[in-house]
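Allow me, if you will, to draw on your knowledge of protein folds for a short while. I have a record of one protein: its chain in single-letter code and its fold written as discrete structure tokens. Could you please explain, in whatever detail you think fit, how the structure tokens follow from the sequence? The record follows directly beneath this note:
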Amino acid sequence: MMRWNRRNFLSLGSLAGIAPARGQGSGFRFAIIGDRTGTAAPQIYSRVWREVSLFGPDLAVSIGDIIQGLNDATAAAEWREMDTLWRRYKRFKTLLVPGNHDIWSPESKRLFEIEAGHPVSHSFVQGGALFVILDNSLSDELAPGQLEYCERQLAKHKELRPKFVFCHRPSWILNARVGNRNFALHGLARKYGVDYVVSGHGHQLVHLELDGVRYLEIGSSG
């Protein structure tokens, strides 16, 4: 395990990441769970959760695409299937980032928020660290309203470190790859001292750094 120093991140293979985070509180450990859907192999997602649970995280963040979705008629049954897995791990808090397989219609958004227990845009503070979840499930880009929400939360908790921003689709990836600093999310990250921006969607491991902000794309968990 790594100790948090605002520069370290530990990835568990291509499945999940877990690292201690130390802010102004006493510190804690959290896990990041990658995409499940997109030709998901049977039993892999449940194995990931089982292995992550062995580390005893205080918090888990699922990066999205939890159900195959895209069909209002079957969505509720798919979430019920997930419930049978998750009830084993209720001892630690879980945050869900909305993916494009999770939300595609008003009804699917309603179901997602019921399952998540929080709105699609959500912020959470633990151990002196700030977690901000944004919703770009319906578009590759972050809508102006999402960026406004992000700035409100970052400004409200500007004294907290570390700061993590999560969104399912890596809308930042092309800009970060070529070193282009002129995009809205990066402007907010620099202004408010965001340490990590974390996404999924691409089923690959990507780690880029721009002006001290680390951009991560998490690999598949299934």
In short: Confidence is low (pLDDT under 50) at residues 1-18. The chain has one domain: 11-217. The first strand starts at residue 11 and ends at 12. Helices lie at 44-53, 72-86, 106-116, 144-156, 173-178, 184-192.
